[in-house]
Design a protein that fits this description.
The complex is a heterodimer of chains A (225) and B (221). Chain A has 225 residues and is mainly α. Chain A has ten helices and no strands. Classes of the chains: A mainly alpha (225), B mainly alpha (221). Chain A binds chain B through residues 1, 3, 62-63, 66-72, 74-75, 78-79, 82-83, 85, 157, 160-162, 164-165, 167-168, 175, 178-179, 182, 188-189, 192-193, 195-196, 199-200, 203-204, 207, and chain B through 1, 3, 62-63, 65-72, 74-75, 78-79, 82-83, 161-162, 164-165, 167-168, 175, 178, 182, 188-189, 191-193, 195-196, 199-200, 203-204, 207.
């Protein structure tokens, strides 16, 4: 193998990749801003005793979790605008596809966290006269959030991975900018090696944080007992 | 909402969709088989005695799980010509990328399954004179497989979902065929909706079957 590596062209155009990283972060942040509140509402609906409320949430969650992310991205870009008669740019389509799907995943994290809190806590909240929303707010969530934190971080990392798919509809995130850079420099091997390294640092860092939180939570739990 | 749905172009060009479905199945089945095999190797190395083997396997897993799949796919697509001197066929690049990516995830499931069997079982089997592979085959795996099947089916479905990403390197699978069909009569809404419905239906059936299998395993416990 006589290939000679040359990262210089990539380094010289690092601003293009950095611009792409900015696009990735912008999309990740806005998708998160959509997914967290919507996920919470879906989880609350899903846990409701009335079927008329829980059924739509179950259908939403199952549908969005089953659909391949790229199919959603492409559908929201090419098909959805025709359906609603409004033009969507790549950013808006990617935000809807990835944010709405992430909301379904987040809903399951919220539900898992809230259901992990013992039934006695719910009963106790009720017994001192709290309404269900107040019980959730003052009793359940403060405890559940600590348990959910590591899982949230893992979901957050998955969200970052999913944003790369928006490159397929020409949204200017890291992979899309990398493709531009590689056709400009004829160095696809080096460009994508650099991109892989960038994502590895970010995502492995988040995973490290998740494990750290998990260990801390376990330690606190054993300290209490 | 005054849009008039018109599926005639979908029906006219349905052979493209059939071909796409074939491509999805081919890539899905091939990657699933090789990923399951790679996973076994990774899982065994991750739980083996020598620290060197464990380290190599955990570097492998860390590598493939912390880089977005699309980046890995592009990387292999461009790396293969550099390493071998021949242009990569989309199928080959996608197959290699999916196998290695899936292998990392499957490997972790095997590892968790193997580690869920108590040490006492190992010691007992060793005490009656069984070798490593004998212990695995006759004692550990038959017990561990039950814990492994639910996460394995979930991960297998995730892998099939990822085959759609191969359309970005122009591999002819279902999502790619949607693009071809929508280019024929400029009916993207119908083309992409049809393909989305087909894919989601297949995946829903698969997860329904997986859930049933899981329930049966629980009943058997």
């Amino acid at each position: 193998m006589q290939y000679s590596w040359d990262f210089l062209p990539v380094w010289r155009h690092a601003d293009i990749l950095l611009d792409g990283v900015g696009g990735t972060l912008a999309l990740t942040a806005s998708a998160l801003a959509l997914a967290l509140p919507l996920g919470f509402v879906l989880a609350a609906m899903r846990m409701a005793p009335k079927r008329a409320i829980s059924a739509p949430a179950i259908i939403y969650i199952d549908l969005f979790r089953t659909a391949p992310a790229l199919v959603l991205v492409v559908w929201f870009y090419f098909a959805f605008p025709i359906l609603i008669g409004v033009n969507l740019d790549a950013y808006a389509a990617a935000l809807l596809a990835i944010g709405l799907q992430s909301a379904a995943y987040m809903a399951e994290v919220f539900r898992g966290g809230m259901q992990s809190i013992g039934k006695g806590q719910w009963d106790a909240g009720r017994a001192i006269g709290l309404t269900t929303p107040d019980t959730v707010r003052y009793v359940i969530l403060p405890q559940a959030v600590r348990r959910m934190a590591p899982v949230f971080l893992i979901r957050f990392a998955e969200l970052i991975k999913a944003t790369t798919l928006s490159g397929a509809i020409a949204y200017g995130e890291t992979v899309y900018r990398a493709s531009e850079l590689s056709s400009q420099t004829y160095r696809p091997f080096e460009v994508f090696t650099s991109v892989a390294a960038i994502f590895f640092v970010i995502i492995a860092g988040i995973g490290f944080g998740a494990r750290w939180l998990e260990r801390r939570f376990l330690q606190e739990n054993t300290a209490v007992q | 909402m005054t849009y008039h749905w018109n599926f005639t172009s979908i029906i006219r060009y349905r052979s493209l969709l059939y071909e796409g479905l074939g491509g999805t199945l081919q890539l899905g089945v091939a990657s699933l088989l090789s990923a399951l095999l790679i996973g076994i190797l990774v899982g065994l190395l991750r739980t083996s005695q020598p620290a060197g083997q464990r380290t190599i396997a955990s570097i492998y897993v860390g590598f493939f799980r912390n880089i977005p799949f699309l980046v890995q796919l592009f990387w292999f697509y461009y790396a293969i010509p550099v390493l071998t001197g021949v242009q990569a066929k989309p199928f080959v690049a996608a197959w290699i990328a999916l196998s290695l990516y899936g292998g990392a995830y499957f490997g972790e499931i095997y590892r968790a399954g193997i580690q869920s069997i108590e040490k006492g079982q190992w010691e007992a089997a060793r005490a009656i004179g069984l070798g490593y592979f004998e212990v695995m085959r006759s004692v550990v795996l038959p017990q561990a497989i039950r814990h492994m099947i639910p996460p394995l089916t979930t991960q297998a479905i995730e892998l099939i979902k990822l085959t759609t990403v191969a359309s970005t390197i122009a591999y002819f699978e279902l999502l790619y065929s949607a693009k071809l069909v929508s280019d024929q009569d400029l009916r993207p809404l119908e083309a992409y909706t049809s393909v989305a419905v087909i894919l989601i239906s297949i995946l829903l059936v698969l997860s329904f079957l997986a859930a049933r299998l899981e329930r049966r395993l629980q009943l058997a416990d």
